[in-house]
Design brief:
The complex is a heterodimer of chains A (114) and B (117). In chain A, 0% of the residues lie in helices and 53% in strands. Chain A has strands at 3-5, 10-14, 19-21, 24-26, 31-38, 44-50, 56-58, 64-68, 73-78, 87-95, 103-104, 108-113. In chain A, a hairpin with a 5-residue loop joins β5 (31-38) and β6. Chain A is globular. The model of chain A has no long low-confidence stretch (mean pLDDT 92). Chain B is mainly beta and 117 residues long. Helices cover 0% and strands 55% of the residues of chain B. In chain B, β4 (31-37) and β5 form a beta hairpin. The radius of gyration of chain B is 14 Å and the shape is globular. Chain A binds chain B through residues 32, 34, 36, 41-46, 49, 51, 88, 90, 94, 98, 100-102, 104-107, 109, and chain B through 2, 4, 6, 40-43, 45, 48, 56, 88, 90, 92, 96-99, 103-111, 113.
Chain lengths: 114, 117
């Protein structure tokens, strides 16, 4: 069975500071890992994904994520937060299997204060 | 801007009504999905269509009836819903996941917010 955990319900960061949103996963075999962002009353937007290769992947809006196989983690990062980054962030995992589903974490609300 | 279009954006219905939610995409994706999302919760998978055939039904009550008329369209027919069915219903599409050729990341519409009175 596959699962994904986001241990923080909320993360608060001052504008201009670096931010990290944590995610850990459990899956049989090699994972496909994703980050999505959701603004209020909107659908989810794809930010970035890890398939294979370089452990640091870059995505939209200046976000990046670091894959760590030994810690089974895929934390989302940004060097300098913007107020407009305030939103709900979901980590998701899909097993390397044609029959697998994308499983979402519980979500982390990111709040950036001016 | 999303390339997955959902209509209507808002729907209010009584428990005896019959209504439909519609979803359309023109990205050539052959997998389409319905998700249900309650406030401050992650999306919950309801149905998956792959090549216009229903491939996953997550034990959804029969008062929700999906339909995929062609590769670009996905409908969700609603009948005799309950107030607890009130939620944001999200449609998504993806390439069909292949062996190493694509990862099947989802592209979501803006959602249809359903209120059942």
């Amino acid at each position: 069975a596959q699962s994904v955990a986001q241990p923080e319900d909320q993360v608060n960061v001052a504008e201009g500071n670096p931010l990290t949103v944590k995610c850990t996963y459990s899956v049989s075999g090699n994972p496909y890992l994703f980050w999505y962002v959701q603004y209020p009353n909107r659908g989810l937007q794809f930010l970035l994904k890890y398939i294979t290769g370089d452990n640091l992947v870059k995505g939209s809006y200046g976000f990046e994520a670091e894959f760590n196989k030994s810690q089974t983690s895929f934390h989302l990062k940004k060097p300098s937060a913007l107020v407009s980054d305030s939103a709900l962030y979901f980590c998701a995992v899909r097993a390397y299997s044609s029959a697998s589903k994308i499983i979402f974490g519980s979500g982390t609300r990111l709040s950036i204060r001016p | 801007d999303t390339e997955v279009t959902q209509t209507p954006k808002h729907l209010v219905m009584g428990m005896t009504n019959k209504k439909s939610l519609k979803c359309e995409q023109h990205m050539g994706h052959r997998a389409m999905y319905w998700y249900k999302q309650k406030a401050k919760k992650p999306p919950e998978l309801m149905f998956v269509y792959s090549y216009e055939k229903l491939s996953i039904n997550e034990s959804v009550p029969s008062r929700f009836s999906p339909e995929c008329p062609n590769s670009s369209l996905l409908n969700l027919h609603l009948h005799a819903l309950q107030p607890e069915d009130s939620a944001l219903y999200l449609c998504a599409s993806s390439q069909v996941q292949g062996r190493g050729r694509n990862t099947g990341e989802l592209f979501f519409g803006e959602g249809s917010r359903l209120t059942v009175l």
